[in-house]
Specification:
Blueprint: H1 2-19, H2 38-42, H3 56-59, E1 71-78, E2 84-94, E3 97-107, E4 111-114, E5 120-124, E6 126-138, E7 143-156, E8 159-174, E9 179-189, E10 191-194, E11 197-200, E12 204-212, E13 218-227, E14 233-241, E15 246-253, E16 262-269, E17 273-281, E18 287-296, E19 365-367, H4 385-397, E20 401-408, H5 415-435, E21 443-447, H6 460-466, E22 468-476
Parallel strand pairs: 20-21
Antiparallel strand pairs: 1-2, 1-18, 2-3, 3-6, 4-5, 6-7, 7-8, 8-9, 9-12, 10-11, 12-13, 13-14, 14-15, 15-16, 16-17, 17-18, 19-22, 20-22
Length: 477
């Protein structure tokens, strides 16, 4: 099935190449080229591999599959001169995927018409209109396919005509690397009449990738876009989450004929809606200001206590502890989220099972986190007790295990001093564990001094990492 769907996309590319001409869309359907949505516009329209809101309908319909609840979005764009660019969008998830609809309008106030001798001949106007129906479905765990059908109408003075077209897109996500890849072909369809001739719609090819940082604060995107009547263009975009309510954006579009190609934007996240703004300059023609607002329900799809409208990690496992953005926490960095982790203070480096508890095997080595001593002494400070108590708990659960407690130091002292202090600290840890009921016969304390560094001793940070105590599983009886 997957190969079949990918084949459909490849077929769409071939079909677009056959239907497209070098002058496709030179005069008709120009409003189909205008970037939609303030968020995407603020990011330089580098949105093909992002497409995680309703404006996926415009950039890559496959992206609709990322929506987990109903959305209604509106856009107002005071475009060049007296032109107004408006849109209304709606998206809703269902069992087979996500469907979306949109209405787009570009129009202007009536103008006074004059003949070649400047005599009044009455008022005239122009307007463009499009209705779009989109659908997206997953074809495996990480890939989605989307398609949009369009009805397009163009009116200039007394000239009026309509056309049908479709878009096709694909989106693939690599969750391990936080990378998404996207591709879309737009405006494959019939022709529109302009004055005394018919012309093909403005065929557009898009491809791109996006990367979201692991903390979900930074989003980077890059697209390459090629209108059939023009050269390839590069679109770059950046989005940064400053706070849970404020997002800043900037973008760049190469080979822009009217300005320097830069754009800027901001987003404001509220409990019931998201408000976005974009500023895009067009040189001598003036500046454009785009506003979008999206409404969404207070549904909490993943039951983490953060409603979907502001949840930056919408598919958190049930029961996981999350931060104010809805992203799961993993305090001990063992790969099992807090709330689901039955051993929440696992020593660093320990192999764990699905419950987050250490898998004790011969040869395993753990580093005790937050283990501290008084300066140049082997006296434990109270902040160390929690980690040692967790280690004692693990050893109580695995009575068959014997361990070596290894003390390590940085290289700031003489080799003999380093070996001595590391030995004393290893013995101090052993004595503490004995006080918690672990028999001394199961443990051996050895100080290695600075012989086994794990970081560069030329920096303070590296020295701090080298001053450590590790457990090594010697054997299982």
């Amino acid at each position: 099935m997957r190969k079949y769907l990918i084949g459909v996309v490849i077929l769409g590319v071939c079909l677009a190449a056959i239907l497209g001409r070098a002058d496709a869309g030179a005069d008709v359907g120009q409003f189909l080229r205008i970037g939609a949505g303030a968020r995407a516009s603020g990011m330089g329209e580098a949105f093909c591999a992002v497409s995680d809101d309703t404006y996926a309908i415009y950039y890559n319909p496959a992206g609709l599959c990322q929506l987990t609840q109903e959305h209604i979005s509106l856009m107002h764009n005071k475009w060049l001169r007296d032109l107004r660019y408006e849109s209304l969008l709606y998206a809703k998830p269902h069992k087979l995927g996500v469907s979306g609809d949109s209405i787009t309008y570009l129009g202007m106030d009536s103008l006074k018409g004059r003949d070649k001798d400047s005599r009044p001949i009455g008022d005239f106007g122009a307007k463009d209109f499009a209705i779009q129906f989109s659908s997206s479905s997953m074809f495996d765990h990480n890939g989605a396919l989307g398609i949009s059908l369009k009805y397009i109408q163009q009116e200039i003075e007394n000239e009026e005509d309509s056309a049908l077209a479709f878009d096709m897109g694909i989106l693939y996500c690599d969750p391990l690397k936080n990378i998404k890849w996207g591709m879309a072909i737009q405006n494959i369809g019939t022709t529109l009449r302009f004055i005394n001739k018919r012309e093909a719609l403005p065929l557009i090819y898009r491809g791109g990738m996006s990367y979201k940082a692991s903390d979900n604060n930074l989003l980077l995107a890059a697209d390459i876009t090629r209108p059939a009547d023009n050269d390839w263009r590069l679109n770059l975009g950046l989005e940064y989450l400053v706070t849970s309510t404020l997002t800043l954006r900037c973008g760049y579009t190469s080979k822009h004929d009217l300005d320097n190609g830069f754009s800027f934007g901001a987003g404001f996240n509220f409990p019931l809606c998201q408000l976005d703004y974009a500023y895009v300059p067009y040189g001598d023609l003036g500046d454009t200001h785009r506003f979008s607002i999206s409404f969404q329900s207070l549904e909490d799809s993943d039951k983490d206590g953060i409603h979907d409208g502001i949840d930056r990690c919408p598919n958190t496992p049930v029961g996981a502890t999350v931060d104010s953005r809805g992203c799961p926490l993993d305090s001990d960095n063992d790969g099992v989220y807090d709330g689901l982790d039955q051993c929440p203070d696992t020593p660093e480096g320990a192999k764990v099972d699905a419950k987050g508890c250490p898998v004790v095997e011969a040869g395993e080595q753990w580093t005790l986190k937050e283990l501290s001593f008084e300066h140049n002494k082997a006296t434990l400070i109270p902040q160390s007790y929690a980690g040692l108590n967790e280690a004692a708990k693990i050893l109580e659960q695995h009575m068959e295990v014997k361990i070596e407690i290894e003390g390590h130091s940085d290289n700031s002292g003489t080799p003999e001093c380093n070996r001595k202090i590391s030995q004393q600290r290893a013995e101090a840890v052993m004595e503490y564990l004995v006080s918690k009921g672990i028999t001394a016969e199961r443990m051996k304390a050895i100080g290695y001094g600075a012989l086994r560094p794990v970081a560069d001793n030329d920096t303070e940070e590296g020295q701090a990492k080298n001053r450590r105590v590790e457990f090594k599983i010697l054997e299982k009886e």
